[in-house]
Each structure stands twice: as structure tokens, then as C-alpha cells.
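The aim of this short unit is practical: by the end, you should be able to scan a pair of folded records and say something sensible about each. We start with the first protein, listed as its amino acid sequence and then its C-alpha cells.
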Amino acid sequence: MEYMSQEGYDKLLAELHQLESVELPQVREAIAEARDKGDLSENFEYHAAKREQSRLLSRIRFKQKVLAGARVLDMSRLNTDSVQLLCKVEMTNLANNNKMTYTIVSPHEANLREGKISVKSPIAQALMNKKVGDMIEVHVPAGTIKLRIENINL
């Protein structure tokens, strides 16, 4: 079971719909066209289209499995007393006084460009259940960083 935001759930549902209703029919059409060209044993287009179909079907099954086990969190029931899933955490790197803000999300919603980090990441794991003012040490691939939590929002 995976907890996620309504936004993340809707995005996954839209991706699944795109795969099933647009991309898969295109691949099936490409397979039919390649099949009409004759000998399948040496038909590169046919084999490439079959590989693409297999890849798409795998992605569809994965997204269906994620959606089947997804539970959308009710944002109104969350509090900001401590860091939890879907909280936006403002923190300061104590080594260089850089301020950072991350939202902790499910692994399927993670996107560093949008400031969303996976709940399974080392930083998010270290932040979980901590409160404003707490200082934490996080072991990341580049070494150890010390952070101070400045604010927690939804």
C-alpha cells in the first residue's frame, strides 16, 4: 500500500489512460502494418513494434498495480507538529547556511526539480517525525550533512 496526494494519484491515472488509450493502439497499428509487409522472421519493424508493445504493457501493469494499492491522504487530517508525508519542510544546511525546502511525497511522485523528495530518500527518512528546531545529521552519498528544521507546512 502506497500513500500519496490526490494530485499524484490523478497524475498516475492520467498517465495510465494515455498509455492505454493512445500509445497502445498506435503500437498495435504499427504491428498490423508491419505484419502486412510479409515475412515476419526478417521484418525489423514488426520485431521493434512487438518489443515496444511488450514495454508498454509492462508499464501499464506497473501503473495499475500502483494505483490498486494507492491510498490518497486526506490533507485536512494532517498536522504540522512533526514532519510527515506530504509536509513541506524548510531547513537550513548548517555547514553553509543554505536554505532548502522539500515536500516529502511517495516515491511515484518524487521530482527534485519540483522540490519533491521520496519518503524513502535518506533526507526524508532522517526528517520523519522531527519537529521545528530539531537538528539532524543525514548520511548521503556525498557524506554527512547537518540540517536544522526551520518550518513545517502542508
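Turning to the second protein, read its sequence before its C-alpha cells, just as you did above.
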Amino acid sequence: MTDRQHTTQSGKVPAASRKRGSLFFRVAKMLAKLVLAFLIGSLLLVVLSRFVNPPITLTMLGDVVQGHGVTKRWMPIGRIDRTMPRAVIAAEDARFCQHRGFDFDAIQAAYRRNQSGKRIRGGSTISQQTAKNVFLWQGGGYVRKGLEAWFTVLIENIWGKRRIMEVYLNVAETGIGTYGVNAGSIRYFKHDASRMSAREAAQIAAVLPLPKKRAGISPRGYTRRYGNSITARIGVVRNDGLDACLR
């Protein structure tokens, strides 16, 4: 019988096995610490952003790198014409005041619509878009989607609906290098967002899904038809109280 066989049969763990086990636990411990640090860090970041307006986002940095520059003019939600949040609710998220961050009915409807080959459209809520715009990067991927879901849960529970809408209206891209509905209103209509007609609000809301490709002023084709549809639905949002959580 060899020494190795004798050691194994005597109940002792071989040195190689002990080394592999030790390495596994060290790696697992390190990963656990990284996850814990991320959870605590993201929580603190969301709490801070509840009171401090985000100074810049990754999307804005991308525009700076590409040489577009960044134009943004923060306006508190209390000063933004109420027609504007009604327009984005009509366009982007009719159940904004009812859901807790995720509209599963809209996700299923988007999946069925996209499977049928019709115009591709996502089921992301305003809360999800806000989480992405403020804390993450544009584009897809499971990692980005997972992080988006985590931050969505945090802002829903820490910020509340009114703060989510305020941040969304101020960081959403409304044109190349233009961020927020106030900067968009000044760019397209030569006045700030404190006074907006239903048509103006609808035109900006129609731009939001593809701000680098759609025209905010004198829109044509699909963008114009979409804007007309949003204009008609603004009254529904108002009359049905779909923006009640913002009052």
C-alpha cells in the first residue's frame, strides 16, 4: 500500500483537496463581500439621490465624449406644467400611479406584439426608465436588466412616485445633447416648461423613445401621428385621475 492510499484510507483529506476547498471559500467570501458592498452602496446612492438632484448620467457623459455637449435645465416638478407629466403617462406608462415599478400586463402585451412582428416596443415603466437613465447605461443585456430591476425596486420604495416623475422629466433625453423637458421646451418652443400646451407636451413625449432620431418640432410621419394620439390621451389621464399620485 502506498503512502497516498494509506493517508486517504485513514480518513485524512489530501492536501490538494484541502487547497481547492480553501480557494473556493476564499473566492466565495470575496464575492459575498462584493455583493454586500454593492447592495449597501446602491442603497446609499438612492437615498442620497432622493434629496440631491443627479448632476450627470452615463448617457450624458456619452454625449460629451461624442462631442455633442449637454444642455439641461433642472425644473422642480411643482413648476413644470401639469400637462407634461400627463403626456408622458399617456405615452409611456398609463398605470404609473397604480403599479409598484413593474407593469407585468404591459410586459406581456409588448412580448406578444413583438412576437407578431409589429413595431418593436418595450414594456418598461417610467420607474424602470428612470432607474436606467440615472444609475445605468443605455442598451440591453441581462446584467443591465437585472440591475435596472434592483434600482427600480429601490426608487419605488425610497423616492416615491412624485420624485420618480420629477427626476424622469429632468434627465430623460429630449434631443441630441438635450436633457429634460425644460431644456427640450426651450429648444423646441422657445419657452420653459412652466407653461406648455397639450400639443407641445405631446410632441416632447413622442420624442422620448428615440430622442436622437425623432424631431421635436415639425414632426412628420409616425412621430406626428404618435404625437396626435398622445394629445388626445392627455385629457383621459386628467379626467380619469391617472396622475393622482403626483398631486
